Amino acid sequence: MNTQDRIETFAKLGDYLSAIDEAGFNTIVENARNENSWFTKESITSAIHGLIKYLNKTDLENWTSPYNLTTVKPKKVAVIMAGNIPLVGFHDFLSVLISGHDILIKLSSKDKVLLQHLIQKLIEIEPAFDARITFGELLLKNFDAIIATGSDNSARYFHYYFDKYPNIIRKNRTSCAVLNGSESNEALKTLGVDVFTYFGLGCRNVSKIYVPKNYDPTLLLQNWSSYEDITHHHKYHNNYDYQKSILLINRSPFLDSGFVMLQENERLVSPISVVYYESYEDEDALALKLTEAKEKIQCIVGHATPASVPFGQAQSPALWDYADQIDTLKFLESLN
C-alpha cells in the first residue's frame, strides 16, 4: 500500500462509523461499558464523532501532505495506550499506520473493546493491514521505536526502559480556560462541554479557569445547570460526595451547584467533580504564567489571547492538534 491507499482505507473507516446502525452501535457501547463503566453511550458517541470529523479523504490528505511518507522504510512502532477516555489511543494508531510503519499495540485494560472493533473493521476494508498490526502484553519486545502515554509516574518507568529507542513519552496534562469577563451566557454554557465531556477525565478537559479580578464565579454554575444529569453516573457521584466531604472536613471555601464544585485554588489539576478557578489582574502576567506551565497544559480555551481553542471545542481536536504539542508524524517520518 502507498500513502494514498492508506488514506482511502481510513476514509472508508470513517464512512463505516458515519453509517453504523443503531443496533450495532448499542452492542459496541454495551461491551465497552461492561469493560469500563466510565464509558457511557454519550462518551463513546462523542469519541466516535471526533473520529468521523477527521477520517475523511480531504483532512487526511491535508494532514499527511507536508511529510515525505512515500520513502518510509517500515519499522515496528510500539504504542502503549492510555484508557482514560474512549479511543484515546486511536490517533497514535492512525499515525503509525498511515505513515507506512507497522504497529505493536499495548492496549489499556480500560479500553480494549472499541479499538479492537475498529481494527477488525479496518482489516475487513483492507486485509493488507492484518500483517501490519500486532498486539503485545506488558513486556514489549522486538520493536524499533515507541510511543507511550501514561501518568507522570509511569513516564519515569517508560524513560528507564525505553530511552534507548526513538520515543515519544507523554505525561499527565490538563487544560484550562481564560475568561475576560465579556463572555455571554451562551459562551459560558458552551464552556461546560469542555469541562464535563468524559466526566473531566481527559487531558483536554478544562480543570482550571482563570477569571478577571472581581469576577462572579457563580455565573459559571448558573450557566452549567443543563449538565446536572452528570451526577446520575454512580462513579462521578461518588467522586462528588468524596471531594465535597474533603472540602467540608478541611473547612475549605467552595461553591456548590449540587453536581460540581468551584474552588479558588492556584493548582492546575483539579479532582473529578471539582473545577479550580483563579483571578488575575494583568493579562501579560497571566500569559507569562501559562507559558511557564506549558509542559502541564494541553490546550487553553477562550475567545481571546492567550487562549487558542474556542469554547466547546477542546474535545474536538484536528488531526494536526498533537498531544503534548509533539508532532507525531514528523517523529514517524524521521525513523528512516
Structure description:
This protein is of the alpha/beta class and 336 residues long. It folds into two domains: 3-172, Aldehyde Dehydrogenase, Chain A, domain 1 (3-Layer(aba) Sandwich); 174-301, Aldehyde Dehydrogenase, Chain A, domain 2. Helix content is 40%, strand content 15%. The chain has helices spanning 3-19, 22-35, 41-54, 57-64, 90-98, 113-125, 152-162, 185-196, 218-223, 234-249, 283-292, 328-333, and strands spanning 76-80, 102-106, 133-135, 145-149, 167-170, 174-178, 206-212, 255-256, 261-264, 274-280, 297-301. The chain has a six-stranded mixed sheet with strand order 8-9-10-7-6-11. The chain has a five-stranded parallel sheet with strand order 3-2-1-4-5, sandwiched between helices. Helix 7 (152-162) links the parallel strand 4 (145-149) and strand 5. The longest helix has 17 residues, at 3-19. It is globular. The two termini are 18 Å apart. The mean pLDDT is 95.
Outline the secondary-structure elements.
Elements: H1 3-19, H2 22-35, H3 41-54, H4 57-64, E1 76-80, H5 90-98, E2 102-106, H6 113-125, E3 133-135, E4 145-149, H7 152-162, E5 167-170, E6 174-178, H8 185-196, E7 206-212, H9 218-223, H10 234-249, E8 255-256, E9 261-264, E10 274-280, H11 283-292, E11 297-301, H12 328-333
Parallel strand pairs: 1-2, 1-4, 2-3, 4-5, 6-7, 6-11, 7-10, 9-10
Antiparallel strand pairs: 8-9
**SS field, number of helical segments:** 12
Label the overall shape. Answer: globular
Derived from helix and strand composition plus strand pairing, the structural class reads alpha/beta
Beta-strand percentage range: 15-25%
CATH topology of the largest domain: Aldehyde Dehydrogenase, Chain A, domain 1
Largest sheet: 6 strands, mixed
Name the CATH homologous superfamily of the largest domain.
Answer: Aldehyde Dehydrogenase, Chain A, domain 1
Mean pLDDT: 95
Summarize the amount of helix as a percent range: 40-55%
Q: Numbering strands along the chain, what is their spatial order in the largest sheet? A: 8-9-10-7-6-11
Query: How many structural domains?
Result: 2
Q: Termini, distance in Å? A: 18 Å
Radius of gyration over alpha carbons? 21 Å
Unreliable segments of 5+ consecutive residues = none
Q: What string gives the helices and strands in order?
A: HHHHEHEHEEHEEHEHHEEEHEH
Instruction: Tell me how many strands there are.
Output: 11
